[in-house]
């Protein structure tokens, strides 16, 4: 696409024939943590059923994909919208499996403890740990990363590996922004602690997702025929860009306030922000629709 070509498109239909597979973000594209966006899941359903494409959801959720399937169903996202899911939790489990017998200090809410199910690790307290598994803040409704500064500095001084299961810094929950594990990981690294991240924007989660697409379609897809869909510049857009994938940027997600009215974003502001970030997008759309 040239600089003079329109960036904003009216719907996924405008691009569908150019791609055999989609890697779609979940939170911010398909739902906001409270309710599903019906037009978005209808768009992915239409892409699968009318255009014959495959859809793998790719999310920085710090849990294995089965709880995410349950969450999507609860929110009202139907199975017709996707073929498979790969989570940051899935690829984090692969990393944790390379530390058999590890004593892990879990940092995050209890709902994320499924991350460790079936792994050869022992959950322990901070003092006995030789590895930190972080899925988020213990109480993300009320705490901020500043509440963790002393603890993270203490852990970093011991040189404990910090495995961050969700690279997101913040995420929308309804009409609020909630701090995520990535904010703690960034702070830990600032204190000199060793940090490992495998979710977006990093390569491992994309390799896994492209492998899922290949299994669905029966052969590896030409990467020029894969479209990534997402709303987060530092994760979705940067990650896809770094992997050489085309991107459909959903602008009314986490960065909605940056581009003017959410439903009528200013294309010049979108282009300028992408340029400032050193990123590119095949197209942009306020919200995912068919």
From TrEMBL:
<dbReference type="InterPro" id="IPR023214">
    <property type="entry name" value="HAD_sf"/>
</dbReference>
<dbReference type="Pfam" id="PF13344">
    <property type="entry name" value="Hydrolase_6"/>
</dbReference>
<keyword id="KW-0378">Hydrolase</keyword>
<dbReference type="InterPro" id="IPR036412">
    <property type="entry name" value="HAD-like_sf"/>
</dbReference>
<dbReference type="InterPro" id="IPR006357">
    <property type="entry name" value="HAD-SF_hydro_IIA"/>
</dbReference>
<dbReference type="InterPro" id="IPR006356">
    <property type="entry name" value="HAD-SF_hydro_IIA_hyp3"/>
</dbReference>
<dbReference type="GO" id="GO:0016787">
    <property type="term" value="F:hydrolase activity"/>
</dbReference>
<dbReference type="Pfam" id="PF13242">
    <property type="entry name" value="Hydrolase_like"/>
</dbReference>
<protein>
    <submittedName>
        <fullName>TIGR01459 family HAD-type hydrolase</fullName>
    </submittedName>
</protein>
């Amino acid at each position: 696409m040239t600089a003079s070509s329109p960036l904003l498109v009216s719907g996924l239909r405008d691009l569908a024939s150019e791609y055999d597979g989609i890697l779609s973000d979940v939170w911010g594209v398909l739902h906001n943590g409270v309710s599903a966006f019906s037009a978005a899941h209808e768009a992915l359903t239409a892409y699968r059923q009318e255009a014959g494409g495959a859809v793998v959801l790719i999310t920085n959720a710090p849990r294995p994909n089965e709880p995410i399937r349950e969450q999507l169903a609860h929110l009202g996202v139907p199975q017709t919208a996707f073929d498979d899911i790969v989570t940051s939790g899935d690829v984090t489990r692969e990393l944790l499996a390379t530390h058999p017998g590890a004593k892990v200090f879990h940092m995050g809410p209890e709902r994320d403890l499924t991350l460790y199910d079936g792994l050869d690790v022992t959950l322990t307290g901070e003092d006995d740990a030789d590895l930190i598994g972080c899925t988020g803040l213990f109480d993300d409704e009320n705490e901020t990363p500043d509440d963790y500064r002393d603890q993270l500095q203490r852990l970093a001084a011991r040189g404990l590996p910090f495995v961050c299961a969700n690279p997101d810094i913040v995420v929308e929950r309804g009409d609020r922004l909630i701090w995520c594990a990535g904010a703690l990981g960034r702070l830990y690294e600032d204190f000199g602690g060793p940090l490992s991240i495998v979710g977006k924007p990093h390569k491992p989660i994309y390799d896994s997702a492209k492998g899922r697409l290949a299994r669905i379609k029966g052969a590896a897809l030409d990467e020029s025929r894969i479209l990534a869909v997402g709303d987060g510049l530092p994760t979705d857009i940067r990650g896809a860009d770094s992997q050489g994938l085309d991107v459909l940027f959903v602008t009314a997600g986490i960065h909605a306030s940056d581009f003017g009215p959410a439903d009528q974003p200013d294309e010049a502001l979108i282009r300028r922000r992408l340029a400032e970030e050193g990123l590119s997008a095949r197209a942009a759309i306020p919200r995912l629709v068919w």
